[in-house]
UniProtKB/TrEMBL annotation:
InterPro entries: LTTR, LysR_HTH_N, LysR_subst-bd, WH-like_DNA-bd_sf, WH_DNA-bd_sf. Belongs to the LysR transcriptional regulatory family. GO terms for molecular function: DNA binding; DNA-binding transcription factor activity. Pfam families: HTH_1, LysR_substrate. This is LysR family transcriptional regulator. Keywords: DNA-binding, Transcription, Transcription regulation. The keyword Transcription regulation applies. Residues 6-63 form the HTH lysR-type domain. Gene3D superfamilies: Periplasmic binding protein-like II (3.40.190.10), Winged helix-like DNA-binding domain superfamily/Winged helix DNA-binding domain (1.10.10.10).
Amino acid sequence: MKDRNLEISWLKTFVTVAHTGSMTQATELLYRSQSAISMHIKNIEETLGRKVFNRDIRRLSLTPAGKELLHHAQKILGVYSEAMQSLIGSDVRGTLSLGLPDDFVKQYLPGLLRSFSEKYPFIEISLICEPSLSLIPKIESGELDVAVVTRDRPDRGHFLFSEPLVWTGSETCNLLDRSPLPVAMYEYGSEARKKVLQALDALESGYRVVYSSPYIAGQIAAVESGMAVAVLTRCSVPEHLTVLRSSRLPAMPALDVVVFASQQSANKSLASLLVQEVISVMGTTD
Protein backbone atom coordinates (compact mmCIF):
# COMPACT_ATOMS: atom_id res chain seq x y z
CA MET A 1 0.00 0.00 0.00
CA LYS A 2 1.35 3.43 -0.95
CA ASP A 3 2.29 5.63 1.98
CA ARG A 4 0.00 8.60 2.49
CA ASN A 5 2.09 11.44 3.87
CA LEU A 6 1.32 15.15 4.00
CA GLU A 7 4.53 17.15 3.73
CA ILE A 8 5.10 20.14 6.00
CA SER A 9 5.51 22.45 3.00
CA TRP A 10 2.11 21.33 1.69
CA LEU A 11 0.47 22.04 5.03
CA LYS A 12 2.05 25.51 5.22
CA THR A 13 0.69 26.26 1.78
CA PHE A 14 -2.75 24.90 2.68
CA VAL A 15 -3.03 26.96 5.88
CA THR A 16 -1.92 30.14 4.11
CA VAL A 17 -4.43 29.66 1.28
CA ALA A 18 -7.15 28.86 3.83
CA HIS A 19 -6.46 32.09 5.73
CA THR A 20 -6.23 34.33 2.67
CA GLY A 21 -8.85 32.61 0.51
CA SER A 22 -6.59 33.22 -2.46
CA MET A 23 -3.73 31.39 -4.11
CA THR A 24 -2.49 34.71 -5.48
CA GLN A 25 -2.13 36.19 -2.00
CA ALA A 26 -0.49 32.98 -0.81
CA THR A 27 2.25 33.41 -3.42
CA GLU A 28 3.15 36.79 -1.86
CA LEU A 29 3.39 35.34 1.65
CA LEU A 30 5.17 32.09 0.78
CA TYR A 31 7.42 33.33 -2.05
CA ARG A 32 6.28 30.48 -4.29
CA SER A 33 4.84 30.54 -7.79
CA GLN A 34 1.11 30.09 -8.24
CA SER A 35 1.77 26.81 -10.04
CA ALA A 36 3.69 25.54 -7.00
CA ILE A 37 0.85 26.61 -4.70
CA SER A 38 -1.66 24.81 -6.91
CA MET A 39 0.49 21.68 -6.97
CA HIS A 40 0.70 21.57 -3.17
CA ILE A 41 -3.09 21.77 -2.88
CA LYS A 42 -3.49 19.14 -5.58
CA ASN A 43 -1.04 16.84 -3.75
CA ILE A 44 -3.02 17.20 -0.53
CA GLU A 45 -6.34 16.42 -2.23
CA GLU A 46 -4.90 13.41 -4.05
CA THR A 47 -3.32 12.10 -0.83
CA LEU A 48 -6.56 12.48 1.12
CA GLY A 49 -8.83 11.51 -1.74
CA ARG A 50 -11.05 14.46 -0.85
CA LYS A 51 -11.43 18.08 -1.92
CA VAL A 52 -10.31 20.64 0.66
CA PHE A 53 -11.44 23.80 -1.16
CA ASN A 54 -14.58 24.91 -2.91
CA ARG A 55 -13.31 26.82 -5.91
CA ASP A 56 -15.70 29.76 -6.12
CA ILE A 57 -15.16 32.52 -8.66
CA ARG A 58 -13.95 35.20 -6.23
CA ARG A 59 -12.64 33.39 -3.18
CA LEU A 60 -11.64 29.87 -2.17
CA SER A 61 -13.64 28.44 0.72
CA LEU A 62 -13.03 25.33 2.81
CA THR A 63 -14.99 22.14 2.34
CA PRO A 64 -15.94 20.13 5.46
CA ALA A 65 -12.78 18.05 4.91
CA GLY A 66 -10.79 21.27 4.51
CA LYS A 67 -12.09 22.64 7.81
CA GLU A 68 -11.10 19.43 9.57
CA LEU A 69 -7.67 19.48 7.95
CA LEU A 70 -7.14 23.13 8.94
CA HIS A 71 -7.75 22.25 12.59
CA HIS A 72 -5.13 19.50 12.51
CA ALA A 73 -2.68 21.33 10.22
CA GLN A 74 -2.47 24.35 12.54
CA LYS A 75 -1.65 22.07 15.46
CA ILE A 76 0.96 20.16 13.45
CA LEU A 77 2.63 23.34 12.20
CA GLY A 78 2.59 24.82 15.70
CA VAL A 79 4.43 21.81 17.14
CA TYR A 80 6.81 21.75 14.17
CA SER A 81 7.59 25.46 14.58
CA GLU A 82 8.24 25.10 18.31
CA ALA A 83 10.59 22.17 17.68
CA MET A 84 12.55 24.03 15.00
CA GLN A 85 12.80 27.18 17.10
CA SER A 86 13.99 25.17 20.08
CA LEU A 87 16.63 23.35 18.05
CA ILE A 88 17.91 26.00 15.63
CA GLY A 89 15.81 29.16 15.97
CA SER A 90 18.16 30.95 18.35
CA ASP A 91 21.03 30.68 15.81
CA VAL A 92 19.22 32.50 12.98
CA ARG A 93 20.96 35.80 12.26
CA GLY A 94 20.39 38.75 9.96
CA THR A 95 18.73 42.14 9.57
CA LEU A 96 15.15 42.94 8.58
CA SER A 97 13.28 46.18 7.97
CA LEU A 98 9.72 46.50 9.23
CA GLY A 99 7.35 49.30 8.27
CA LEU A 100 4.41 50.29 10.46
CA PRO A 101 2.16 53.39 10.64
CA ASP A 102 2.57 55.23 13.94
CA ASP A 103 -1.13 54.64 14.67
CA PHE A 104 -0.39 51.03 15.58
CA VAL A 105 2.96 51.40 17.35
CA LYS A 106 1.85 51.79 20.96
CA GLN A 107 -0.87 49.14 20.90
CA TYR A 108 0.76 46.39 18.86
CA LEU A 109 4.51 46.87 18.42
CA PRO A 110 5.82 46.04 21.94
CA GLY A 111 4.19 42.60 21.97
CA LEU A 112 5.38 41.84 18.45
CA LEU A 113 9.00 42.85 19.13
CA ARG A 114 9.05 40.96 22.42
CA SER A 115 7.70 37.77 20.88
CA PHE A 116 9.95 37.90 17.81
CA SER A 117 13.12 38.71 19.75
CA GLU A 118 12.50 35.82 22.15
CA LYS A 119 12.45 33.41 19.21
CA TYR A 120 15.11 35.08 17.07
CA PRO A 121 17.37 37.13 19.36
CA PHE A 122 20.06 37.58 16.69
CA ILE A 123 17.80 39.09 14.02
CA GLU A 124 18.07 42.88 14.05
CA ILE A 125 14.88 44.82 13.26
CA SER A 126 15.12 48.20 11.56
CA LEU A 127 11.80 49.96 12.21
CA ILE A 128 10.30 52.51 9.83
CA CYS A 129 7.23 54.38 11.14
CA GLU A 130 5.50 56.03 8.18
CA PRO A 131 1.98 56.20 6.71
CA SER A 132 0.75 53.25 4.65
CA LEU A 133 0.81 55.49 1.58
CA SER A 134 4.61 55.72 1.94
CA LEU A 135 5.25 52.14 3.08
CA ILE A 136 3.53 50.34 0.19
CA PRO A 137 5.85 51.70 -2.57
CA LYS A 138 8.87 50.86 -0.40
CA ILE A 139 7.70 47.26 -0.12
CA GLU A 140 7.09 47.05 -3.85
CA SER A 141 10.58 48.40 -4.63
CA GLY A 142 12.32 46.15 -2.10
CA GLU A 143 13.40 49.05 0.12
CA LEU A 144 11.41 47.43 2.96
CA ASP A 145 11.20 43.73 3.80
CA VAL A 146 7.86 43.61 5.66
CA ALA A 147 5.11 46.13 6.32
CA VAL A 148 1.86 46.36 8.24
CA VAL A 149 -0.44 48.73 6.34
CA THR A 150 -4.01 49.80 5.78
CA ARG A 151 -5.37 47.70 2.92
CA ASP A 152 -5.75 49.78 -0.24
CA ARG A 153 -7.08 47.02 -2.50
CA PRO A 154 -8.83 43.68 -1.89
CA ASP A 155 -5.86 41.49 -2.84
CA ARG A 156 -3.29 43.36 -0.76
CA GLY A 157 -1.54 41.30 1.91
CA HIS A 158 -2.72 38.95 4.64
CA PHE A 159 -5.65 40.32 6.66
CA LEU A 160 -4.85 40.92 10.33
CA PHE A 161 -7.75 42.87 11.86
CA SER A 162 -10.18 45.74 11.37
CA GLU A 163 -9.35 48.88 13.33
CA PRO A 164 -12.29 51.21 14.07
CA LEU A 165 -12.05 54.93 13.34
CA VAL A 166 -13.43 57.17 16.10
CA TRP A 167 -14.15 60.87 16.59
CA THR A 168 -11.74 62.46 19.05
CA GLY A 169 -11.78 65.81 20.83
CA SER A 170 -10.45 67.72 23.80
CA GLU A 171 -12.46 67.72 27.04
CA THR A 172 -11.82 71.46 27.49
CA CYS A 173 -12.95 72.54 24.01
CA ASN A 174 -16.44 71.82 22.70
CA LEU A 175 -16.30 72.29 18.95
CA LEU A 176 -19.40 70.34 17.97
CA ASP A 177 -21.49 73.52 17.76
CA ARG A 178 -19.10 75.08 15.25
CA SER A 179 -20.40 75.41 11.70
CA PRO A 180 -18.63 74.27 9.67
CA LEU A 181 -16.96 71.71 11.95
CA PRO A 182 -13.15 72.19 12.14
CA VAL A 183 -11.42 68.87 11.43
CA ALA A 184 -7.80 67.66 11.59
CA MET A 185 -7.18 65.13 8.85
CA TYR A 186 -4.92 62.34 7.62
CA GLU A 187 -2.60 63.04 4.68
CA TYR A 188 -3.83 63.46 1.11
CA GLY A 189 -4.33 60.19 -0.78
CA SER A 190 -4.49 57.91 2.25
CA GLU A 191 -7.21 55.28 2.65
CA ALA A 192 -8.09 56.74 6.07
CA ARG A 193 -8.60 60.22 4.61
CA LYS A 194 -10.79 58.83 1.79
CA LYS A 195 -13.02 57.00 4.28
CA VAL A 196 -13.26 60.02 6.60
CA LEU A 197 -14.18 62.41 3.78
CA GLN A 198 -16.87 60.03 2.52
CA ALA A 199 -18.42 59.97 6.00
CA LEU A 200 -18.11 63.76 6.43
CA ASP A 201 -20.21 64.34 3.32
CA ALA A 202 -23.19 63.35 5.47
CA LEU A 203 -22.49 66.11 8.05
CA GLU A 204 -25.40 68.57 7.86
CA SER A 205 -23.45 71.51 9.31
CA GLY A 206 -20.59 71.00 6.89
CA TYR A 207 -16.91 70.75 7.74
CA ARG A 208 -13.62 72.53 7.18
CA VAL A 209 -10.21 70.84 7.13
CA VAL A 210 -7.96 73.07 9.24
CA TYR A 211 -4.97 70.75 9.60
CA SER A 212 -3.53 67.77 7.70
CA SER A 213 -0.69 65.51 8.78
CA PRO A 214 0.61 62.07 7.80
CA TYR A 215 1.59 61.48 11.42
CA ILE A 216 -0.73 60.79 14.32
CA ALA A 217 1.22 63.07 16.67
CA GLY A 218 0.34 66.07 14.53
CA GLN A 219 -3.37 65.31 14.58
CA ILE A 220 -3.31 64.76 18.34
CA ALA A 221 -1.55 68.12 18.78
CA ALA A 222 -4.26 69.81 16.71
CA VAL A 223 -6.95 68.33 18.95
CA GLU A 224 -5.05 69.24 22.13
CA SER A 225 -4.75 72.84 20.93
CA GLY A 226 -8.52 73.14 20.67
CA MET A 227 -8.39 74.06 16.98
CA ALA A 228 -10.10 70.92 15.67
CA VAL A 229 -11.64 67.53 16.26
CA ALA A 230 -10.08 64.54 14.53
CA VAL A 231 -10.90 61.06 13.38
CA LEU A 232 -8.25 58.64 14.68
CA THR A 233 -7.79 54.90 14.85
CA ARG A 234 -9.21 53.79 18.20
CA CYS A 235 -5.92 52.21 19.28
CA SER A 236 -4.07 55.52 18.87
CA VAL A 237 -6.32 57.75 21.01
CA PRO A 238 -4.39 58.88 24.11
CA GLU A 239 -6.07 58.68 27.51
CA HIS A 240 -6.30 62.45 27.97
CA LEU A 241 -8.43 62.90 24.85
CA THR A 242 -12.12 62.09 24.59
CA VAL A 243 -13.81 59.72 22.16
CA LEU A 244 -16.76 61.80 20.98
CA ARG A 245 -20.14 60.13 20.80
CA SER A 246 -22.79 62.37 19.32
CA SER A 247 -25.73 61.82 17.02
CA ARG A 248 -24.58 64.91 15.13
CA LEU A 249 -21.40 63.17 14.01
CA PRO A 250 -21.53 60.63 11.17
CA ALA A 251 -20.55 57.06 11.97
CA MET A 252 -17.06 56.10 10.94
CA PRO A 253 -16.00 52.88 9.17
CA ALA A 254 -13.11 50.62 10.12
CA LEU A 255 -9.76 50.22 8.40
CA ASP A 256 -8.64 46.76 7.29
CA VAL A 257 -5.06 46.18 8.40
CA VAL A 258 -2.82 43.69 6.57
CA VAL A 259 0.77 42.45 6.53
CA PHE A 260 2.78 41.74 3.40
CA ALA A 261 6.38 41.17 2.40
CA SER A 262 8.44 42.44 -0.49
CA GLN A 263 8.93 40.14 -3.45
CA GLN A 264 12.21 42.01 -4.00
CA SER A 265 13.54 41.39 -0.47
CA ALA A 266 17.10 40.09 -0.17
CA ASN A 267 16.06 38.34 3.06
CA LYS A 268 13.01 36.37 1.96
CA SER A 269 13.48 33.49 4.41
CA LEU A 270 13.86 35.88 7.36
CA ALA A 271 11.00 38.06 6.10
CA SER A 272 8.78 34.99 6.07
CA LEU A 273 9.58 34.40 9.75
CA LEU A 274 8.61 37.97 10.60
CA VAL A 275 5.39 37.81 8.56
CA GLN A 276 4.33 34.64 10.38
CA GLU A 277 5.09 36.26 13.74
CA VAL A 278 3.06 39.34 12.81
CA ILE A 279 0.14 37.09 11.89
CA SER A 280 0.50 35.13 15.13
CA VAL A 281 0.70 38.21 17.38
CA MET A 282 -1.51 40.74 15.58
CA GLY A 283 -3.87 38.59 13.55
CA THR A 284 -7.52 38.02 14.36
CA THR A 285 -8.29 34.44 15.40
CA ASP A 286 -11.54 32.80 14.41
